[in-house]
Amino acid sequence: MTSRHPSGFRFSDEFIKRWTNRLVIAIFAIGGIGIGLSAATEIDGSPDWLGTVAAIVLIGGVVGPLLAAAVLGGESIRRGGGLVGVLLVGGLGAGGAGQVIDRPWLTWCGAAAVALSVIGFWAMGWIAKVPMYIGLPWAHGDVVQRDDSAPKDLFGGDDPRLRPRRPRGGSASRGPRR
Protein backbone atom coordinates (compact mmCIF):
# COMPACT_ATOMS: atom_id res chain seq x y z
CA MET A 1 0.00 0.00 0.00
CA THR A 2 1.22 3.45 -0.85
CA SER A 3 1.63 5.97 1.95
CA ARG A 4 -0.85 8.82 1.66
CA HIS A 5 -0.84 12.40 2.79
CA PRO A 6 -3.94 13.40 4.80
CA SER A 7 -5.32 15.15 1.70
CA GLY A 8 -5.39 11.82 -0.12
CA PHE A 9 -2.41 12.51 -2.38
CA ARG A 10 0.70 10.33 -2.56
CA PHE A 11 2.97 13.40 -2.68
CA SER A 12 3.33 16.04 0.03
CA ASP A 13 1.85 19.53 -0.32
CA GLU A 14 5.36 20.99 -0.51
CA PHE A 15 6.34 18.69 -3.38
CA ILE A 16 3.18 19.53 -5.31
CA LYS A 17 3.60 23.27 -4.74
CA ARG A 18 7.30 23.21 -5.69
CA TRP A 19 6.68 21.37 -8.97
CA THR A 20 3.64 23.49 -9.82
CA ASN A 21 5.75 26.63 -9.46
CA ARG A 22 8.58 25.18 -11.54
CA LEU A 23 6.27 24.12 -14.36
CA VAL A 24 4.43 27.46 -14.48
CA ILE A 25 7.77 29.28 -14.60
CA ALA A 26 8.94 26.94 -17.38
CA ILE A 27 5.82 27.64 -19.46
CA PHE A 28 6.33 31.40 -19.18
CA ALA A 29 10.11 31.33 -19.67
CA ILE A 30 10.15 28.98 -22.65
CA GLY A 31 7.05 30.63 -24.08
CA GLY A 32 8.77 34.01 -23.81
CA ILE A 33 11.79 32.67 -25.65
CA GLY A 34 9.51 31.31 -28.38
CA ILE A 35 7.71 34.64 -28.71
CA GLY A 36 11.06 36.41 -28.90
CA LEU A 37 12.22 34.05 -31.64
CA SER A 38 9.00 34.53 -33.56
CA ALA A 39 9.40 38.31 -33.32
CA ALA A 40 12.96 37.93 -34.60
CA THR A 41 11.63 36.32 -37.80
CA GLU A 42 10.18 39.71 -38.80
CA ILE A 43 13.64 41.27 -38.96
CA ASP A 44 15.00 41.65 -42.49
CA GLY A 45 17.73 39.17 -43.24
CA SER A 46 16.66 36.61 -40.62
CA PRO A 47 17.18 32.99 -41.66
CA ASP A 48 14.22 31.07 -43.06
CA TRP A 49 14.52 28.29 -40.46
CA LEU A 50 14.02 30.70 -37.55
CA GLY A 51 10.22 30.56 -37.87
CA THR A 52 10.27 26.77 -37.62
CA VAL A 53 12.50 26.92 -34.55
CA ALA A 54 10.21 29.52 -32.96
CA ALA A 55 7.16 27.30 -33.54
CA ILE A 56 8.93 24.24 -32.10
CA VAL A 57 10.06 26.19 -29.01
CA LEU A 58 6.57 27.64 -28.46
CA ILE A 59 4.80 24.30 -28.83
CA GLY A 60 7.41 22.44 -26.79
CA GLY A 61 7.38 25.17 -24.14
CA VAL A 62 3.70 24.62 -23.55
CA VAL A 63 3.30 20.90 -24.25
CA GLY A 64 6.39 19.76 -22.29
CA PRO A 65 5.47 21.34 -18.93
CA LEU A 66 1.80 20.49 -19.49
CA LEU A 67 2.72 16.83 -20.05
CA ALA A 68 4.95 16.84 -16.97
CA ALA A 69 2.16 18.40 -14.90
CA ALA A 70 -0.39 15.85 -16.13
CA VAL A 71 1.93 12.92 -15.44
CA LEU A 72 2.87 14.20 -11.96
CA GLY A 73 -0.80 14.93 -11.23
CA GLY A 74 -1.80 11.40 -12.13
CA GLU A 75 1.08 9.89 -10.18
CA SER A 76 0.23 12.01 -7.14
CA ILE A 77 -3.18 10.36 -7.00
CA ARG A 78 -2.29 6.77 -7.83
CA ARG A 79 0.76 4.79 -8.92
CA GLY A 80 0.56 4.45 -12.72
CA GLY A 81 -1.86 7.39 -12.93
CA GLY A 82 0.58 9.26 -15.12
CA LEU A 83 -0.74 7.24 -18.05
CA VAL A 84 -4.07 9.03 -17.64
CA GLY A 85 -2.16 12.32 -17.79
CA VAL A 86 -0.42 11.21 -20.98
CA LEU A 87 -3.84 10.34 -22.44
CA LEU A 88 -5.10 13.82 -21.51
CA VAL A 89 -2.23 15.67 -23.19
CA GLY A 90 -2.29 13.30 -26.16
CA GLY A 91 -6.02 13.96 -26.58
CA LEU A 92 -5.48 17.71 -26.43
CA GLY A 93 -2.71 17.43 -29.01
CA ALA A 94 -4.76 15.17 -31.28
CA GLY A 95 -7.75 17.50 -31.08
CA GLY A 96 -5.63 20.53 -31.92
CA ALA A 97 -3.80 18.74 -34.71
CA GLY A 98 -7.10 17.56 -36.17
CA GLN A 99 -8.29 21.15 -36.37
CA VAL A 100 -5.02 22.40 -37.90
CA ILE A 101 -4.74 19.73 -40.60
CA ASP A 102 -8.52 19.54 -41.17
CA ARG A 103 -9.07 15.93 -40.09
CA PRO A 104 -12.37 15.77 -38.20
CA TRP A 105 -11.84 12.14 -37.14
CA LEU A 106 -8.61 13.15 -35.37
CA THR A 107 -10.44 15.94 -33.56
CA TRP A 108 -13.13 13.50 -32.40
CA CYS A 109 -10.52 10.96 -31.28
CA GLY A 110 -8.78 13.71 -29.31
CA ALA A 111 -12.07 14.75 -27.70
CA ALA A 112 -12.80 11.12 -26.76
CA ALA A 113 -9.31 10.76 -25.24
CA VAL A 114 -9.79 13.94 -23.20
CA ALA A 115 -13.20 12.73 -21.98
CA LEU A 116 -11.77 9.33 -21.00
CA SER A 117 -8.88 10.95 -19.15
CA VAL A 118 -11.21 13.27 -17.22
CA ILE A 119 -13.29 10.25 -16.21
CA GLY A 120 -10.04 8.44 -15.31
CA PHE A 121 -8.81 11.30 -13.12
CA TRP A 122 -12.20 11.49 -11.43
CA ALA A 123 -12.27 7.74 -10.75
CA MET A 124 -8.70 7.72 -9.40
CA GLY A 125 -9.51 10.66 -7.12
CA TRP A 126 -12.68 8.98 -5.91
CA ILE A 127 -10.84 5.74 -5.10
CA ALA A 128 -7.98 7.62 -3.38
CA LYS A 129 -10.50 9.74 -1.42
CA VAL A 130 -9.03 13.01 -2.69
CA PRO A 131 -11.35 15.95 -1.94
CA MET A 132 -12.83 17.16 -5.25
CA TYR A 133 -14.74 20.36 -5.86
CA ILE A 134 -17.54 21.08 -8.29
CA GLY A 135 -17.23 24.81 -8.83
CA LEU A 136 -14.73 27.08 -7.16
CA PRO A 137 -14.08 26.18 -3.50
CA TRP A 138 -13.84 29.82 -2.41
CA ALA A 139 -17.11 30.60 -4.25
CA HIS A 140 -19.07 28.05 -2.18
CA GLY A 141 -18.40 25.14 -4.49
CA ASP A 142 -19.66 21.77 -3.36
CA VAL A 143 -17.10 19.31 -1.99
CA VAL A 144 -17.52 15.84 -3.35
CA GLN A 145 -15.85 13.24 -1.14
CA ARG A 146 -16.58 9.71 -0.09
CA ASP A 147 -18.14 9.45 3.34
CA ASP A 148 -17.07 5.92 4.24
CA SER A 149 -13.75 6.94 5.79
CA ALA A 150 -11.12 9.62 5.49
CA PRO A 151 -7.65 8.73 4.18
CA LYS A 152 -5.26 7.60 6.88
CA ASP A 153 -2.65 10.10 8.00
CA LEU A 154 0.64 8.30 7.47
CA PHE A 155 2.71 11.49 7.39
CA GLY A 156 2.25 12.64 10.95
CA GLY A 157 0.74 11.64 14.20
CA ASP A 158 2.42 8.85 16.11
CA ASP A 159 3.57 6.52 13.33
CA PRO A 160 6.99 5.29 14.53
CA ARG A 161 8.14 4.65 10.93
CA LEU A 162 8.03 8.38 10.18
CA ARG A 163 9.84 9.70 13.23
CA PRO A 164 13.34 11.09 12.66
CA ARG A 165 16.01 8.63 13.67
CA ARG A 166 18.75 9.84 15.93
CA PRO A 167 22.09 8.10 16.01
CA ARG A 168 22.60 6.32 19.28
CA GLY A 169 25.75 6.57 21.25
CA GLY A 170 27.43 3.32 22.00
CA SER A 171 28.42 0.62 19.57
CA ALA A 172 28.02 2.77 16.45
CA SER A 173 30.65 5.20 17.67
CA ARG A 174 33.11 2.63 19.05
CA GLY A 175 33.57 0.40 16.04
CA PRO A 176 32.69 -3.24 15.48
CA ARG A 177 31.28 -5.27 18.29
CA ARG A 178 33.33 -8.18 19.64
From TrEMBL:
Segments of this protein annotated with the region Disordered: 149-178
Segments traversing the membrane: 21-43, 49-73, 80-99, 105-128
UniProt biased composition (Low complexity): 169-178
Entry keyword set: Membrane, Transmembrane, Transmembrane helix
Listed name of the protein: Major facilitator superfamily (MFS) profile domain-containing protein
Organism: Aeromicrobium wangtongii
